[in-house]
Specification:
The chain is of the alpha+beta class and about 190 residues long. Helices cover about 50% and strands about 15% of the residues. A hairpin with a 7-residue loop joins strand 5 (about 130-135) and strand 6 (about 145-150). It is globular and about 55 Å long.
C-alpha cells in the first residue's frame, strides 16, 4: 500500500527518469493506483517545483507530465552544456502553427487556402522540428495528409492542452452573435473535411 508521500516520491522518480513526457495513466498502472491519485501527486509536485526560484518545473502536457528547465535559468544551462540557441520561428511558421492549432486536424491545402501562399516548406520544417505531426489521411481523392500539433508544441508554448490557447482575434466579442450560427459554422467546417 502506498502512502501519499510514497506515491508522490515514486511519481517524481518516474517523471525525472523519463526525460520525455510520461502518460499519467501509465504511472497509475505501474503504481497500481487510480489516475486521480497520480493527478493529485503531480499537482503536489507542481506546487513544490513550479516556483520562481526552482531550477526545474513540472509541465502538464495533456494527459502526460514532464520535468523541464525553468525558463528563467535557460541561459546558464545553455552555457554549461554548450547548447546552441534555437533559432526563432519565422512569421510564416508561426502563422502555419496558428492555423493548424486552431483548426486541427487540417490538410496542407486548408492551411494554404487560409494563408493564401504555398506552405509545403514551412509544414515540412515544422514536422521536422516536432511541432506538427501527421494525423492520418482525409477520405477524399488523393487522400491528402492531415496535420495536427504535437506534445512538443504544447511543451514549447507551455500549454497543458490545446484548450489553453487564447481565443483567436475577433472572437471575444462575437461569441454571443455566433451562438445562433454555430450549427451552420460546424457544417461549413465539416464540408471542408469531407
Amino acid at each position: 500500500m502506498n502512502t501519499e508521500e510514497q506515491l508522490i516520491g515514486k511519481a517524481e522518480a518516474i517523471l525525472f527518469a523519463g526525460g520525455e513526457p510520461v502518460a499519467l495513466d501509465r504511472i497509475a498502472q505501474v503504481l497500481g493506483v487510480r489516475v486521480y491519485a497520480v493527478e493529485t501527486a503531480v499537482a503536489r509536485l507542481q506546487e513544490k517545483y513550479n516556483t520562481p526560484e526552482s531550477g526545474v518545473h513540472l509541465l502538464l502536457l495533456g494527459d502526460s507530465a514532464q520535468f523541464c528547465t525553468n525558463p528563467a535559468y535557460i541561459e546558464p544551462v545553455r552555457a554549461a552544456l554548450d547548447l546552441k540557441r534555437n533559432t526563432p520561428l519565422s512569421q510564416a511558421a508561426m502563422e502555419v502553427l496558428a492555423v493548424v492549432a486552431y483548426n486541427q486536424p487540417v490538410t496542407k491545402a486548408f492551411v494554404e487556402q487560409v494563408r493564401g501562399v504555398d506552405c509545403s516548406g514551412v509544414v515540412g520544417s515544422l514536422v521536422q522540428k516536432g511541432l506538427l505531426e501527421e494525423r492520418g489521411r482525409l477520405e477524399l481523392p488523393g487522400r491528402p495528409l492531415l496535420y495536427g500539433t504535437t506534445e512538443n508544441f504544447l511543451r514549447c508554448f507551455q500549454l497543458s492542452s490545446i484548450d489553453q490557447l487564447p481565443p483567436p482575434p475577433g472572437e471575444s466579442g462575437q461569441e454571443e452573435e455566433e451562438d445562433g450560427e454555430e450549427e451552420e459554422g460546424d457544417q461549413t467546417k465539416l464540408s471542408l473535411y469531407g
